[in-house]
Please model this.
Amino acid sequence: MNWDDVRIFLAVARAGQILGAARRLGLNHATVSRRVAALEDALKARLFRRLTTGSELTPAGERFLLVAERMEADMIAARAEIAGEGDALTGTVRLGAPDGFGVAFLAPRLGALAVLHPELMLQLVPVPRSFSLSRREADIVITVDRPTEGRLVAGKLVDYTLQLYASRTYAEENGLPKTPAELSSHRLVGYVPDLAISPSLDYADEIAAEWPANFSVSSSLGQVEAVRSGAGIGILHTFIARSMPELVPVAIGKPIRRAYWLVYHESVRPMRRVQAVADFVTRIVERERTIFV
Model:
């Protein structure tokens, strides 16, 4: 069995289409199609259904995907061992994170790792979306829920809190509520519930039974900026809000508690550059753990 054919199979399985895989691999469409066909001939099994929308794995393809991922993991481990521990870290590591954690916490701190390893290319993608580790859309992902499916390695980074905040200007002009019932007489800044990346981030009912937001922003940093501008009272990450003297806490209810998890696919465990980034993120979070509570 040709490893290059297996590698191309993995790219098509992850992209969901031959054209997308060809672009990712830097090959032309015909070459990818021909190599997939050669692998199917070698295995005497049809691995993909060709659809107008792309390529879908057959039951045989699903079974072979597990085999192919084990082969890939072995290849990665072999390359890592041959490369040697003394070599400089090279290559690209893409790290996906929710925008609050990614922009407010990671972005100012990851530069130190880039200085330490100048040949390591870091990509921080702090957008409110999900990433498929099995499809290699990211090497490491920071999530707000522990994954329960797939061949993933997950470790809790830290618990964090959210609570009510308003700008000092808003507080001076409107006063602050003292009970959840009084929130209804104030302007409220909220999130867009159906765009929350996880059900655990639909948390307003932990503060009040209803949260009739006058202004909703689908980004946690956007909510911070809206509250800073005086648009209303919002539920903000405390590790972000505490760093802004123009914001004041609103003493209603207990802080909302959630957690960040660091997750990567089992097959990239042997990759030194991925481990270096994961270890660095874990260390800087541990060093500054007190800002999250």
